[in-house]
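Supplementary Methods, section 5.1.

A reviewer requested that the exact input to the structure prediction be made available. We therefore reproduce it here, unchanged from the version used in the analyses.
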Amino acid sequence: ELPELKKLYEKYKSNDKFQFISFTFEPETLVKKFIQKNEINYPIYSLSKENCNNLTFNNGYPTHIILNKNRK
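The structure derived from this sequence is encoded token-by-token as follows.
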């Protein structure tokens, strides 16, 4: 899925109505290595596993959520 996410980001990155961010429960040290290795250009934030579960509605991983400006 990573190549498709990168394509989606590249397609919309110049659109000021679009913001692409990613969350993980992995430690920041691993996240930094992942970003460098995979040439990720969007932010990835490291959260607690509990906070990630709240964001994904406990549906498991990976989960992708797309929201409009009204958070729907």
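The chain has a mean pLDDT of 85. These observations are discussed further in the main text.
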